[in-house]
Amino acid sequence: MTPVRTVSPILVVGTGLLGTSVALGLRSQGVDVLLNDASPVALGLAADYGAGRIAPATSATAAAALDDAEANTPKIVVVCVPPDVAGQVVMEQLTAWPDAIVTDVTSVKAAPLDYVREHGGDLRRYLGSHPMAGRETGGPLAGRANLFLGRPWVITSHAETSVQALQEIEGLALDLGATVVNMDAEAHDSAVALISHVPQLVSSVMAAQLLNDDAGASALAGGGLRDVTRIAASDPTMWNQILAANGPRVATILRDVASDITELATALEDMSVPGARRIVADHMIAGNQGVARIPGKHGISQTFATFTVMIDDAPGQLAKLFSDIGEVEVNVEELQIEHAPGANMGLAQISVLPESLTTIMDELRNRDWKVAE
């Protein structure tokens, strides 16, 4: 077993999805975790589910009065609260625990850093970070010990960052199975605006168009609509907090998106106008080039070949399909499953390396699977 880098105890402030997952992940490796939350219900649930023990002291002074003061004095404090209060809570923890390294895991990094700097916080002991992981549900019951396994964990170093703080937070991220990425707060916030915040809003706006669907077109929806609108079900309150801290960066990209959409709409109004078809094609080609930049399996860009298998909606069918694929000795790179509207069957879209496509399709057809490229 790999030696644990994180020294006990640590304090997790905020027992929602991320806080509880941090705590569960560290507890699974034997780290002593203290828990604190403004909500007694969330705090009690996290403790009951094994995320750690409720912190008996709220400051170094209070901890010193306890018989086991050292066991209740955190070496690291992980702040897991909404972005609109993150800076304030980080300052409170820096003051309460003058010997502890403090990090926060909010999805916007410049605002908390600016708050701590403006309020005279000890920046040698504060180092923001952001695990790029989450789930569709929140709260302590959604916490998972393996939530960060293989996921990027951004650490936003700044001019005052101490070597100790960097080592401690990198160690914590590595102990949780994450991959450490170092970048400054401004670069991080620009990056998440592009790859997370704008997609959320574009998805929401597209899904909102379905409110005007009086003809029942949504009943015909396939994978394309589901892919584009999947994240539109996100919590508006949480996203308001995130977007309020990163609004100008998001607005700049949204205006670029709006400009492209306006150009496309103008071209589509009359495709007989010279150059209109070129405009549409150029935007789609640019989209092809953009999606090719998204890292795939193992973090590398790779082009896969995709085919579809029709599966009866019955127990054991998916297991049989994978058993047959295993016998063919072809590795599945990606898998998506959707149900055929109005039919008791599913459609499995399977991606493999291009050189394996013909082999696997022929073999599955020979085993009586209905296959389409």
UniProtKB/TrEMBL annotation:
Which is an annotated GO molecular function term of this record?
A: prephenate dehydrogenase (NAD+) activity
Question: What InterPro entries does the annotation carry?
Answer: 6-PGluconate_DH-like_C_sf, ACT-like_dom_sf, ACT_dom, NAD(P)-bd_dom_sf, PDH_C, PDH_N, Preph/Arog_dehydrog, Prephen_DH
| PANTHER family xrefs | PREPHENATE DEHYDROGENASE (PTHR21363), PREPHENATE DEHYDROGENASE [NADP(+)] (PTHR21363:SF0)
List the Gene3D superfamilies hit by this protein, alphabetically.
6-phosphogluconate dehydrogenase C-terminal like domain, NAD(P)-binding Rossmann-like Domain
Record flagged with keyword Transcription regulation: no
Q: Which Pfam families match?
A: PDH_C, PDH_N
Q: In which pathway does it act?
A: Amino-acid biosynthesis; L-tyrosine biosynthesis; (4-hydroxyphenyl)pyruvate from prephenate (NAD(+) route): step 1/1
The UniProt record lists the Prephenate/arogenate dehydrogenase domain at: 8-302
EC number(s) on file: 1.3.1.12
User: What organism is the protein native to?
Assistant: Gulosibacter bifidus
Keywords of the record, alphabetical order, are: Amino-acid biosynthesis, Aromatic amino acid biosynthesis, NAD, Oxidoreductase, Tyrosine biosynthesis
User: Which protein are we looking at?
Assistant: Prephenate dehydrogenase
Sequence ranges assigned to domain ACT in this UniProt record: 306-373
Q: Which reaction does it catalyse?
A: prephenate + NAD(+) = 3-(4-hydroxyphenyl)pyruvate + CO2 + NADH
To which protein family does this belong? Belongs to the prephenate/arogenate dehydrogenase family.
